Amino acid sequence: MSYPSNLRYSDQHEWVLLDGSVATVGITDHAQKQLGDIVFLELPKVGAIVEAGKPCGTVESVKAVSEIFSPVTGAVTEVNSALIESPEWINQDPHGKSWMIRVSLSAPAPLDKLFTAAQYEEYVRQETAS
């Protein structure tokens, strides 16, 4: 899988698209493949404060329930409600229409802690080799 170069990636397998002071967040293709068929999604409500590196929701598949970790800090301004109704979209298009939340940043994005696409691909290679 080639990961979109316009996104940044966390070591917890979330992606973030930065647009000025707004970050769009989702989970990576690698994460959805590890989870399998996704059947349920719980996301924070609009107005909730999320913190970089802290849990902000859960995703449930036929295999497991996993926490979603926010890669940024700020207030949730939008939730992809269509995704809550159709969580299987995550398996079909994890880096596109399956974004989960939009966050108005209250602190600069921790770019030094987020991977570029190439760095994330290498991280996944090393993680799956262990």
Please give the structural blueprint.
Blueprint lengths: L7 E2 L4 E6 L2 E6 L1 H7 L2 E5 L6 E2 L4 E7 L3 E5 L4 E6 L1 H5 L3 H4 L8 E5 L11 H13 L1
Antiparallel strand pairs: 1-2, 2-3, 3-9, 4-6, 5-8, 6-7, 8-9
CATH architecture: Beta Barrel
Proportion of residues in extended strands = 25-35%
Structure summary, number of beta strands: 9
What is the CATH fold-level name?
OB fold (Dihydrolipoamide Acetyltransferase, E2P)
**End-to-end CA span:** 19 Å
Across the major sheet, the strand order is 1-2-3-9-8-5
Ranges where pLDDT stays below 50 over 5 or more residues in a row are none
The top-level CATH class is Mainly Beta
Query: Helix count, per DSSP?
Result: 4
Tell me the radius of gyration. Answer: 14 Å
Describe the sheet with the most strands: 6 strands, antiparallel
The CATH homologous superfamily is named RNA polymerase II/Efflux pump adaptor protein, barrel-sandwich hybrid domain
Helix/strand class: alpha+beta
Name the shape in a single word: globular
Instruction: Provide the number of structural domains.
Output: 1
Order of helix and strand elements from N to C terminus? EEEHEEEEEHHEH
Percent of residues in helical segments? 10-25%
**Arithmetic mean of pLDDT:** 95
Verbal overview:
The protein has a single domain, classed as RNA polymerase II/Efflux pump adaptor protein, barrel-sandwich hybrid domain (OB fold (Dihydrolipoamide Acetyltransferase, E2P), Beta Barrel). The longest helix is centred in the C-terminal third of the chain and has 13 residues, at 117-129. Helices cover 22% and strands 34% of the residues. It is of the alpha+beta class and 130 residues long. The two termini are 19 Å apart. A hairpin with a 3-residue loop joins strand 6 and strand 7. It is globular. It has 4 helices and 9 strands. The strands form 2 sheets. Strands 1-2-3-9-8-5 form a 6-stranded antiparallel beta sheet. A 3-stranded antiparallel beta sheet has the order 4-6-7.
